[in-house]
Amino acid sequence: MNPRTRKKIKAGVIGYGGAFNMGRLHLDEMRRAGMAPAAVAEIDPVRLEVAEKDFPGIARYSSVEEMLKRADVDLVTIITPHNTHAPIAIQCLKAGRHVVCEKPLAIATAECDSMIAQARRSGVVLSTYHNRHWDGSILRALKKIRSGAVGEVVRIQARMGSRGKPGDWWRSSKSVSGGILYDWGVHLLEYSLQIIESEITEVSGFVKSGFWGPKTVWGDDTNEDEGFAVVRFASGQWLTLCVTSLDSDPKAGMIEVTGTKGSYVFDIRTWTLITSGSNEIIVRKGKNPPDERRRYYRNIVDHIQNGAPLIITPEWARRPIHILDLAGRSARAGRGLKAKYG
């Protein structure tokens, strides 16, 4: 079929909340990828009015049920709190819609399993909006690491933190967000799993709670003050992840990759390569290239319309969730837990 005559994928979003303008961001990205923004479902009537201003004429619904019943959208992106991803996704998958979930895919491994099973039964696409898969920082890191810049990779340290009381919103509620490791942790793990290409074998988790103890608008079940996980791989490599609100001296970089010849440290904007020369340490620094995040929805369209390989499969998106799920369970059990999915 001629691409110019191919029917456009009609796209909708569930959730048009004010935080980060995510509803508008997704619909804009869908449109740039060749989709047609068609519908918005949002429980807040004020935000529905904003959606109408952003996309004049777009169909607006006050519930998911109404959207699925009345709108002929082909694909929906779910932009709601983390603990709602699984039930809403399964509802949409059962209705025969392709589904994209904002990160994280879900909170628990079992939820991911149920979503994947329903997508297979319905014969539709399920993916997670891991647009940071194409951040300039990780694209450059992979190029340098795979070229042997640090030698054989031994371990990765992934970290994010500062010192301060968490904000009074749903992302600080453990039952809603999943816990302190889930928000940025899922990004850091997705970066790291691109670098260490080996099966996960075991996860150990550690948490500290009760210092800040903020009561959020979502209740008293606040996130941990610090979460820490150690991941073992079949290759003998390991990964540590730390997300904290207790760090008085935040370290440079979000990811440090240590190898037999040196280390590569990077955050969103910058990179540092540290290697050993003849009796000296060589330090090189630079800025990361621009991101290529628009490739995410372009791949979704190409997969649905042309059968191109799906890059962010639900099985791939389940891997960081499995680590986070095991880390939480390990912290409660006080011992490491074997991985079900490598």
Principal-axes shape call: globular
Q: Output the radius of gyration.
A: 21 Å
Report the major sheet: 9 strands, mixed
Number of discrete domains: 2
Per the CATH scheme, the topology name of the largest domain is: Dihydrodipicolinate Reductase, domain 2
Order of the strands making up the biggest sheet:
14-13-12-11-7-10-9-8-15
**Helix run count:** 10
The number of E-state strands comes to 15
Going by helix content, strand content and strand pairing, the class is alpha/beta
- CATH C-level class of the largest domain is Alpha Beta
- Percent range for β-strand residues: 25-35%
Helix content: 25-40%
Describe this structure in words.
The chain is α/β, with parallel strands linked by helices and 342 residues long. The protein contains ten helices and 15 strands. 32% of the residues lie in helices and 25% in strands. A nine-stranded mixed β-sheet has the order 14-13-12-11-7-10-9-8-15. Strands 3-2-1-4-5-6 form a six-stranded parallel β-sheet, with helices on both faces.
